[in-house]
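Box S1 | Example of a co-folding query
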Amino acid sequence: MKRICMIVLCFVLCLCSCSDVYRYTSTEFYSMTTFVNVISDGDGNFDNVENYAKDFENRISRTKSDSEIARLNRDGSAVLSEDTLSILKKSLEIAVNTDGAFNPCLGTLSELWDITSGKEYVPDKGEIETALKNTSYEEVKIEGNKVTLPKGMKIDLGGVAKGYALQKMVEIESSEKDANVCVSIGGNVGVRGSSEANRKNNKDGWNVGITNPFDKNELSGTLTLTKGFVSVSGAYERFFEKDGKVYHHIFDSKTGYPAQSDIASAAVINNDGLEGDALSTALFVMGSIKAIEFYKENKYNFDMILVLDDGDILITKGIKDKFTVNSSAKGIKSDIKVID
Ligand code: ADP
Ligand code: MG
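Box S1 (continued) | Returned holo structure for adenosine-5'-diphosphate
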């Protein structure tokens, strides 16, 4: 009888310790015009993460009238908080390094097109030329914390805000109990540690799905990562169609029109959320030839997955062993090309 009790006790202890190890919980909330999902084996309280996202959005959004950026855009000059200023400075630096493929000064143009408003408005050439006059990122003046914009310019940090906030949210959630965390917001995912399913199967990391740009309901492939950020830019998320043409939300700052390149989606994998977000937007605008040149210039430390319009997939060598293509995905060719 004693032995049976011991066996039962051992079994109960084992169950307790197993469920202790794998106590993952999740939450979902709306911020920055999209859903944020958080999964972690932390203490199950996600208030800190949610509060951060909401405060951040209130500070950075160009459409929230009390935000620092809205004030700057309205008055043409403003004293910014240290954090907002550092985001703007980093964004301007990336604009220089990508020769304007990423440009945080496209606010006037974004406002003109207003892609997500439902208006489905295609501006005429004259309006676009006027809006483009006010997008020279070299002309932003910064003295201490005071930023002054040239007349008519508006800042739009929509291409970096999610990536920056993503990194902060992963840091906040993982700082507690050294938790395993996965946060996703729009096309950006940040991870640390391993998922519950992988740990149960004695594997490491989180499996991050990359959406198939030719069919949003499936994946073009999966990346397994234990640490880092994946930022994806594509024309398939925010767009409208008019007279058989697709108009999406990533602009070519040289033409003022939605970028037309041979890239259907650009994913950047790296260790810096803001940089990854900006670079995925930039690569999408550049097109594959310039994107490969840019990667080889080594200005930033990142890997990339480019899904081209013809279904080819180009990936850089750093993630070769971490990426599995979904060979049955619509429009996707399974023979991946690796860039050295
Ligand atoms: P998403 O916001 O869907 O994740 P991106 O990270 O690619 O996609 O950012 C696109 C957003 O960035 C647009 O909605 C707009 O606010 C802004 N944007 C558009 N074109 C550019 C560009 N060339 N450079 C910088 N920001 C841009
Ligand atoms: Mg981006």
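The chain is about 35% helix and 25% strand. Residues 102-104, 106, 110, 156, 158-159, 162, 186-187, 233, 237-238, 249-251, 253, 277, 280-281, 285 surround adenosine-5'-diphosphate (ligand 1) (CB under 6 Å).
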